[in-house]
């Protein structure tokens, strides 16, 4: 793992490293930096600095009881902020760096503000060179929700970050488009069984294969709230969003836009067709922002099946629609 992290950081250009060094100085001073991960762009601050974390909530307009994920660059750094059990370590060694966040018992060093007032904290190691370098150079775990106005579609490119919150923060590091387009999978590892709190870039099936056991779905709302992105409406475009099958768009629907894998019946004023679920997920948030500017009055979106990345994609679509 250490070798993979070092290799990724070594792949950065001199110009990128210069921006990372600037970002690390801002983080150490208690400031905010937007940066790319493999999932979406994050809005980062020192996870152990209460005032810095408070600035994240203020910049996003984020509810104060919505916890933040701590981004680390090594298992040793994770051990400094949470209690790691044997099963969690299996997943870290298998899938880190990658789009997997693990909810574990927080250590006292993690401020209550970072944890959203909970006794647990979510940690992950991002699989993106700029993100890993920023954590390494700052020497701190970085708390980082998506770098957008709370409730809006998450940003998957730097320009979206700038248009949403660029005026509120000192630095946006541009790393191009993100690879997954949906946030990390969040798994609660504090009990006897692993519990899926939020589907994301790593499939439930892959996690079950690594653990050799079923990953349960949550039954208790108090457990669900340990994950960000599960209690409030998220990812919402400015237009109504309705999920349906390609053949079920209502006849005579008002001026409408379409997105999905299949061609719709009828005549949308704008449409975005993707080759498969992976591309649908990767382009979802960008598509929502584009279609809300298309002149349509409503967006119809194809409902994916729940295998692989489809589970995360369907979750984001449901939340964007307000369901």
UniProtKB/TrEMBL annotation:
EC number: 2.7.7.87
YrdC-like domain residues: 17-202
Subcellular locations according to the entry: Cytoplasm
Gene Ontology MF terms: ATP binding; double-stranded RNA binding; L-threonylcarbamoyladenylate synthase; tRNA binding
Keywords: ATP-binding, Cytoplasm, Nucleotide-binding, Nucleotidyltransferase, Transferase, tRNA processing
Task performed by this protein: Required for the formation of a threonylcarbamoyl group on adenosine at position 37 (t(6)A37) in tRNAs that read codons beginning with adenine.
Family: Belongs to the SUA5 family.
Protein name listed in UniProt: Threonylcarbamoyl-AMP synthase
UniProt lineage: Bacteria, Thermotogati, Synergistota, Synergistia, Synergistales
């Amino acid at each position: 793992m250490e070798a993979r992290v070092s290799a990724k950081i070594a792949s950065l250009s001199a110009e990128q490293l210069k921006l990372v060094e600037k970002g690390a100085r801002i983080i150490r001073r208690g400031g905010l930096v937007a940066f790319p991960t493999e999932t979406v762009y994050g809005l980062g601050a020192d996870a152990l600095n209460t005032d810095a974390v408070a600035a994240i909530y203020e910049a996003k307009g984020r509810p104060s009881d919505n916890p933040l994920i701590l981004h680390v660059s090594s298992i040793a750094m994770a051990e400094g902020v949470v209690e790691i059990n044997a099963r969690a370590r299996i997943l870290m060694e298998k899938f880190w760096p990658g789009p997997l966040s693990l909810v574990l018992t927080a250590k006292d060093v993690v401020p209550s503000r970072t944890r959203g007032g909970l006794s647990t904290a979510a940690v992950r190691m991002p699989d993106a060179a700029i993100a890993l370098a920023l954590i390494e150079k700052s020497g701190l775990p970085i708390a980082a929700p998506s770098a957008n106005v709370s409730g809006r579609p998450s940003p998957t490119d730097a320009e979206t970050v700038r248009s949403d919150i660029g005026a509120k923060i000192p630095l946006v590091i541009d790393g191009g488009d993100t690879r997954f387009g949906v946030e990390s999978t969040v798994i609660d590892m504090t009990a006897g069984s692993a519990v899926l709190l939020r589907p994301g870039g790593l499939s439930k099936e892959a996690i079950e294969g690594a653990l050799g056991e079923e990953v349960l779905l949550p039954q208790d709302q108090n457990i669900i709230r340990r994950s960000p992105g599960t209690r409030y409406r998220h990812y919402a475009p400015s237009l109504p969003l309705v999920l349906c099958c390609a053949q079920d768009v209502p006849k005579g629907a008002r001026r409408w836009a379409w997105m999905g894998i299949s061609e719709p019946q009828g005549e949308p004023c704008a449409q975005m067709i993707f080759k498969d679920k992976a591309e649908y997920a990767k382009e979802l948030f960008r598509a929502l922002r584009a279609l809300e500017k298309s002149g349509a009055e409503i967006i119809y979106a194809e409902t994916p099946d729940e295998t692989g990345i489809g589970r995360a994609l369907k979750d984001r679509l449901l939340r964007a629609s307000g369901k």
